Amino acid sequence: MLCPRLNTKTEPERTRLMANVYPFAAWLAAGDVAPSVSSLPYDVMNRAEAKEMAAGNPNSFLRVTRSEIELPEDLSPYSPEVYQRAAENWQKLCSGVLQQDPQASYYIYSLVWKGRRQTGVVAAASVADYDQGIIRKHERTRKEKEDDRTRHISTLRAQTGPVFLTYRDSEEVNAVVMATMNGQPLFDFLASDGIRHSGWQVPQKFTPALQAAFAAIPRLYIADGHHRAASASRTRAALAEQGPVGQADKFLSVIFPAGQLAILPYNRVMQDLNGLSCQEFLQALKGVCTVTATDQPIPAHPGQVCLYCQKKWYRLDFSAADAAATAIDRLDVSLLQSKIIAPILGISDPRTDPRIDFIGGIRGTDELQKRVDSGAAALAFSMHPTTVEQLMEIADANEIMPPKSTWFEPKLRDGLFVHAI
User: Fold this and answer.
1) pTM over 0.85
2) Residues forming CATH 3.30.1760 domain(s) in the chain
3) Looking at residues 336-342, what average pLDDT do you find?
């Protein structure tokens, strides 16, 4: 038996180009249950890590998003049994742990990390907007990951994790957010990783103003969650072949103003030097950038990359990009790839080549040194982070960023808000 959901009409087709986001009747992890239910996103840990995180906690939402942790380890995470177990665990949570809002609402979700707060609106974004490019993307997706989340959504008839969206700041949206945060929160807790999570229900009297404020925003941008958005679109298309799609014409999202977001670098480690010694490699670099020994492992500004090799750090300074260069070509990750990784290290496709690995900036440069010093990698590159403005500029141009260009932190928790379709 599926969790009950409100009967709503399918979103009408539109031709006007503006963002449309909707209130919805969320399934909520409110009050004291929120800390035990909420979990990190399904794709930021491996199977063993997920199993350890959920151990001893029957309410953990990982039992829904990573249900293979309850099944034999030799079973593929894409087996039918995995999706069926996820549906069973979802039903258990709906039977007393989670509560469904009796009316369609907007919500506010705030995260505080290292003294910095980012606060977004939880809403049902439009699949049609995604399909038409009003919601802009900047990454390619992988079919196997799309297949997985599409089957997960279709089996549960629920979107269990939000798509992280952003927009150019709006004073009108901010006014509603601030007024709502003066009220009693739905949940407020400090997670084990030191991030404080708080949520509020937007009062019904503010709903028209908030919807109108978003309707004045011409575009939304996917910051993180491209596979979830693509899977929502595929689910809607599949259901449309069978009849009315109901709430599947929308997808769960948390929408943050760009001015509040911080992108961490996405660093690179290389398994070998393509037959070169470290000194030969450094000599080859002098033809494409300025190389300077340094004790600073973090680049000070764009156009600069730090290199770690044989227990020493070096600063690489690239010359200013050509004025005619595209927004993608000006990215530090693009400069590194086109000037060093491809021509010198011989890796032309960083998406598929096993000789390159990517390390999220949350792990710091100590992790880079550890990889190289242990012999697990031959060298490492410490990057300057891509900016939100660069992301939006590239998305506006309908371009695709190089792989692993952005690492957003803090991560949004799954299970606090769920959108049943």
Assistant:
1) yes
2) 266-384
3) 96
